[in-house]
Design goal:
7 strands, 10 helices, Beta-carbonic Anhydrase, Chain A, two-stranded antiparallel sheet, alpha/beta
């Protein structure tokens, strides 16, 4: 009898421990207890977020710019909207064609995905990605296509802090393959930054100033296009520069 009581007591003790453990969650990193209600994840926020929708055709450059601002604010706040990625939406885009409201010429850096940092969905952005966000006839042809044939009202050159291509242009050194062609496009911005008296003893300062000037040079290259220039003069198209902050996730307009 005593043995049976001992087993029963042990069993009740184990059951109490198990029930107590079910009431909390142990962090796999530091062993601290946390409840499910604490620190909701982006996935949890998305579960209750409305589905993102916009007017199908945007013709105003200012309206297009505001959509990018609003989207980036959602992104930095960790409150992205749900996106309609269904087969129905894909079929609609096939049937009705694409009407992107902005062309984004972005650096190829994997940390700078335009659709994510502007919180946009299928059919919203016409994205051209190239290291250093430089403009050559190939990139310019893609931009012209979006403006002339898709009637996209806004063209954005999107650079970012600590750009690897700009850093390579600032630091110099030997390059291999066709990387030299990218550096060649960025070098005028570096020379201009130095001529302005930007510190050459602090690489970071020089890199960031060169990055901003490189964005401006890309915008000037875009405006060399008669197609783009005609749209700008008719107030149907606008061109803007943006610099992206990698860790903050925010954007800064470059004038």
């Amino acid at each position: 009898m005593r043995s049976r009581l001992t087993y029963l007591s042990c069993g009740l003790l184990i059951l109490a421990i198990l029930l107590n453990g079910c009431g909390s969650k142990i962090s796999p990193t530091n062993g601290e207890q946390s409840t499910e209600a604490e620190n909701p994840t982006v996935q949890e926020a998305l579960a209750t977020a409305p589905v993102y929708k916009r007017t199908e055709i945007i013709s105003s450059p200012n309206q297009a710019k505001q959509l990018l601002i609003d989207g980036n604010q959602r992104f930095t706040a960790g409150k992205p909207m749900n996106k309609d990625l269904s087969s129905t939406r894909r079929s609609e885009l096939m049937k009705n064609g694409q009407h992107p409201f902005a062309v984004i010429v972005s650096c190829s850096d994997s940390r700078v995905p335009p659709e994510l940092l502007f919180d946009q969905a299928l059919g919203d952005l016409f994205v051209v990605r190239v290291a250093g966000n430089v403009i050559t006839p190939v990139e310019l042809g893609s931009i012209e296509y979006a403006v002339e044939h898709l009637k996209t009202p806004l063209v954005v050159v999107l650079g970012h802090e600590e750009c690897g291509a700009v850093t390579a242009a600032v630091q110099g050194g030997e390059t291999h393959g066709n990387i030299a062609e990218i550096i060649k496009k960025i070098k005028p911005a570096v020379d201009e930054a130095k001529a302005m008296g930007t510190s050459t003893t602090n690489d970071k300062v020089l890199i960031e100033k060169s990055t901003e000037l490189n964005i401006k040079n890309a915008l000037n290259d875009i405006l060399d296009s008669p197609i783009i220039k005609e749209g700008v003069e008719a107030n149907q198209v606008d061109t803007i520069g943006i610099k992206y902050d990698l860790d903050e996730g925010s954007i800064k307009f470059i004038k």
